[in-house]
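Progress against Task 2.4 (sequence-to-structure conversion) is shown through the following example record, which the project officer requested during the mid-term review.
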Amino acid sequence: MGADARHLTGAAVEAAAARHLASRGLVLLDANVRYVDGELDLVMRDGDTLVFVEVRYRASDDFGGAAASVTPAKQRRLVRAATRYLASHPSLAALPCRFDVVGAEGDADAPTLTWLRAAFDAG
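Structure tokens generated for the chain above:
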């Protein structure tokens, strides 16, 4: 799969994840926020909690599936990106924060989604 196809697949899966979470009451604030040392797929609000969502897609659940691919190194990059996001959005910095993972598997146009709330801690 080429880079363009991967980008389109990623965009479709992230959009499906955003819709899934919105249907459960979360509000989308930002998507695909890029920093030099990390990227935030989705930034959402769940009531008074700011939620940084990592969306991981795998065509199959071989090797542990999508959620298992959020390694400790990836978690550190997400925490750094979240810290940068909070620094650039001071009105949100006082909110409690959470890191969720949405694992997406199967057909990218209609993926099976698994939402892991509070998948890991910043500390």
